[in-house]
Design a protein that fits this description.
Length: about 700
């Protein structure tokens, strides 16, 4: 009996393993049994035996050859890949279900296709979190290889935003530009992924790769939840659109975020938060250092049409080697609004350089905002805005830093363009340059300055130097404004305006004025109109001016000086501004444009708003000393006022009608053309009537 084995297993005869040829007696029987080795199965008998029974009785009646055939088991492997990734099986890409020999050693590797995703662990017949899985196949396997967004949690919706707790998670934001995100932990140099993604050694020394570009801008919602991202490093001097975000689109919102210890270098369109913004930025605050070329801002390099910045700040030193550089925003182009925001870092650049914004163009409103850093540049340099190009409003804003430049340099703005407005704003920093240098505005081209002031000293090595404005062009105006700083220049030097071709009304200056040619206490050279405005010839040391009226310090501390010129002014008990008039917003009041502290005329305290009844002055009236006689009218008399003069016998001698406006001083003025004597006057309006006496002395 000759036995042969094909495959891997044993053949037993009467319980003994057959390993060779056996000689058996004719007619004897043998009990045969086959036992398969691991990973094999008995398939069938061969040669002189047929069938597939694993145990049988064999009659030995002649020489026989028997063959026991064993075959290798096999198992199926099926892997479902979910998400952007693939799987390698022993180094070969898995492309579909496979039939594998039982017991074969396998190495399964989950490979990421998109760095914004992560492998979420094997599931199915095997649960294992490892990205690489080693196993022996001993049964059919169905596995799932899921690749999911690389975040700590969330689904990317408004109701369930993706959660960010590491730099890897932050890096993954770029893969989901329209999703919602929450920063759920502070990020710094100790957070996972910092060395690889945001440090000085990351990306070959280039540091952080900005999220979003021109082709694929960030359009999602990013809520910092009041947490901080610290230590972000970028060194990409040959690249544009640099910041935590490179480019954002309309619909993007970034809120409630702090960035600290920034160290960012780029070429153009460089911002601490965003290189180019079209979305809404709300309550974002950052600190650090930033270097770029053109369109460089501490928060945003270029704020595109529709971009809004609200209650945000930058405490960043901003260095621009080119043009359009700002402490908060480099260029704001038709932005929706910049409000309640500020910048505190020093700013330097070439042209159009501002402590808050380098260049604001068309339609922007800058409200309730300020800058405190020093600003330096060449042309169009301002403590708040370098170039306020067209149709821009600056409202209730200020700058306090020192401003240095060459041409068109201002404590608040270098240039105010057409339809520009400056209202309720001020600058207190010293200003120096060559020409068109002003304590508030360097060159007011076609703008309106109102209810504003300047307190810094002004120095111009050339011409057009003014305590408030260097050059006030035709169709430009400065109304209800004042300046207090010292002004020095070579020519066209004025305590208020260096050269005026526009309109000046109800304004004054008190600073010292020094210059060569065309020097005036209020206006250096004038081709425009100047009405009801004054300068202090004692403190300015200038007895002449191209416009305005010279007054002493005492006269400028006297409310009658201004009432006689129909200023909207009231007395206050607040000791402020060394007795000179100051603007209502400086007192947090709104019932008048101006206030003044005048101890000698305390009986006028409150004027029309607080008077119990009509007040007349001067009384007695002396024509040789007094230009007009004034009556202050309480509000209850309305805006249509009748004044009637009677002699002591009750005969009517004169009747005048006056119209007041709610935003004006409640003051009427009248020139008596009567002989010396005592008269009775009656004021009537809105059903109210008041009578009093007046005396005329000729």
């Amino acid at each position: 009996l000759v036995a042969e084995i094909i495959g891997s297993g044993e053949l037993l005869g009467d319980g003994t393993t057959y390993t060779d040829t056996l000689v058996l007696l004719t007619g004897s029987t043998v009990a045969l049994k086959v036992v398969a080795d691991q990973y094999y199965s008995f398939s069938q008998w061969g040669a002189d035996l047929v069938g597939s029974d694993t145990e049988l009785e064999l009659l030995v009646d002649e020489d026989k050859l028997i063959v026991a055939k064993f075959s290798r088991d096999s198992h199926s492997l099926e892997i479902a890949v979910e998400g952007p990734g693939w799987v390698e099986v022993n180094g070969e890409t898995y492309v579909g279900p496979q039939q594998l020999a039982a017991g074969e050693a396998l190495q399964l590797d989950a490979q990421l296709l998109n760095p914004a995703y992560r492998f979420d662990g094997w599931s199915g017949d095997i649960d294992d979190p490892s990205q690489t899985l080693s196993l022996l196949i001993e049964e059919d396997l169905q596995l799932i290889a899921p690749f999911v967004p690389n975040f700590a949690g969330g689904e990317g919706t408004q109701a369930s935003p993706y959660e960010i707790t590491t730099w890897e998670h932050l890096h993954s934001v770029r893969g989901f530009p329209e999703a919602h995100f929450n920063l759920t932990d502070d990020l710094d140099s100790t957070s996972a992924g910092y060395d690889q993604l945001a440090s000085e050694t990351a990306n070959g020394g280039a540091g952080w790769l900005p999220i979003g570009d021109e082709d694929d801008p960030f359009a999602g919602q990013f809520d910092g939840a009041g947490r901080t991202i610290a230590g972000l490093y970028i060194d990409r001097p040959d690249s544009d659109y640099i910041g935590l975000f490179g480019v954002s689109s309309a619909g993007c919102t970034v809120t409630n975020l702090r960035l600290s210890e920034l160290d960012i270098t780029g070429r153009d369109y460089v911002g601490g938060l965003i290189g180019q913004n079209r979305g809404k930025i709300h309550r974002v605050n950052l600190t650090g250092e930033l270097v770029g070329g053109d369109f460089v801002g501490g928060l945003i390099g270029y704020n595109s049409p529709g971009g809004a910045v609200i209650k945000s700040s930058a405490g960043v030193e901003v260095i621009g080697s080119g043009d359009v550089v700002g402490g908060l925003i480099g260029y704001s182009h038709r932005g929706r609004k910049i409000s309640e925001s500020f910048a505190t870092g020093d700013v330097s650049g070439t042209n159009r350089v501002g402590g808050l914004i380098g260049n604001a163009y068309r339609g922007d409103q800058i409200a309730g905002s300020y800058a405190t850093g020093d600003v330096s540049g060449v042309n169009r340099v301002g403590g708040l805005v370098g170039h306020n190009f067209s149709n821009i409003s600056i409202i209730n804003s200020y700058a306090t830093g020192e401003v240095t430049g060459a041409d068109e340099v201002g404590g608040l703005a270098g240039v105010i363009g057409s339809a520009g407005r400056v209202v309720g704003s001020y600058a207190d920093g010293d200003v120096s340059g060559d020409s068109s240098v002003g304590g508030l505005v360097g060159n007011n081209l076609l703008g309106q300055l109102k209810n504003s002031r300047a307190g810094g000293n002004v120095v111009a090595s050339g011409g057009r130097a003014g305590g408030l404005v260097g050059h006030n062009s035709a169709e430009a105006s400065a109304v209800a404004a004042y300046s207090t700083g010292k002004v020095e220049g070579a020519n066209k030097v004025g305590g208020f305006i260096g050269e005026n071709a526009g309109q000046v009304e109800t304004s004054y200056s008190v600073g010292e004025v020094l210059g060569g040619a065309d020097v005036g206490g209020l206006i250096g050279i004038n081709s425009g109109t100047v009405r009801n405005s004054f300068w202090n010839y004692e403190t300015s040391e200038q007895f002449a001016s191209a416009g305005g009226e010279a007054k002493t310090s005492a006269e400028l501390n006297d409310i009658h000086t201004f009432l006689d010129s129909r200023w909207d002014i009231q007395l206050t008990s607040s000791e402020k501004n060394k007795g000179y008039p100051f603007l209502a917003w400086e007192k947090s009041a709104s019932s008048a444009t101006w206030y003044i502290t005048d101890e000698d005329h305390a009986d006028l305290l409150g004027t029309a708003e607080q008077l119990k009844d009509v007040y007349s002055y001067p009384n007695p009236y002396r024509p040789t000393e007094n230009g007009v006689m004034n009556f202050i009218i309480p509000p209850r008399y309305g805006n249509s006022i009748s004044l009637t003069i009677y002699n002591l016998n009750g005969r009517s001698l004169a009747n005048e009608k006056f119209s007041l406006h709610n935003n004006q001083a409640r003051l009427i003025s009248w020139i008596p053309e009567l002989a010396s004597g005592t008269y009775i006057y009656v004021i009537e309006g809105s059903g109210n009537s008041y009578s009093g006496t007046l005396t005329i002395i000729r």
